[in-house]
From TrEMBL:
This is Carbon-monoxide dehydrogenase small subunit. It comes from Sinorhizobium fredii (strain NBRC 101917 / NGR234). Residues 2-78 form the 2Fe-2S ferredoxin-type domain. SUPFAM superfamilies: 2Fe-2S ferredoxin-like (SSF54292), CO dehydrogenase ISP C-domain like (SSF47741). The keyword Iron-sulfur applies.
Length: 163
């Protein structure tokens, strides 16, 4: 057993966990944030994608003990109160939600992608970068539209801020 502290969505969470506890299990079962899903448990589907110290990772293949002292953002931590994060809003507006199982992972991967590319994305890049996230509804068209819209809004907002 190990005593670990992980800051999740701005709140320090300290728990005693078995050394083999996965980060996704820590988030869901120990902290009770169930927005992060477990799809495959083998890093194939991306449903468990979260941000670990600002970068998207698949939390089903990270030990919770390895994240001791780190900061985690889950899908629950993206919105600003009742106001959706721009990527969440774009998924809503472009019907990129389908059944919703993959949505948290898709959104977390998309937020990271837009940040890394500073909003400069094309369809091919978005499709390539989302290859590690599987939508069982196969509704990639609307997901890609949502990511491109959010990226465009990100670029526009940063262009205005730079002026």
């Amino acid at each position: 057993m190990s005593r670990i502290t992980i800051t999740i969505n701005g709140k320090a969470e300290t728990r005693e966990v078995e050394d083999r506890t996965l980060l996704v299990q820590f988030i869901r079962e120990h902290v009770g944030l169930t927005g992060t899903h477990v799809g495959c448990d083998t890093t194939q589907c991306g449903a468990c994608t979260i941000h670990l110290d600002g970068e998207a990772v698949k939390s089903c293949t990270v030990l919770a003990a390895a994240a001791d002292g780190c900061e985690v953002t889950t899908i629950e931590g993206l919105a600003d109160g009742p106001k959706l994060h721009p990527v969440q809003q774009a998924f809503h507006e472009h019907h990129g939600l389908q059944c919703g199982y993959c949505t948290p992972g898709m959104i977390m991967a998309s937020v990271d992608m837009i940040r890394r590319h500073d909003g400069v994305l094309d369809e091919q890049t978005v499709r390539h970068e989302l290859e590690g996230n599987i939508c069982r509804c196969t509704g990639y068209h609307n997901i890609v539209k949502a990511v491109l819209d959010a990226a465009e809004k990100h670029r526009a907002a940063h262009a205005v801020a730079a002026e």
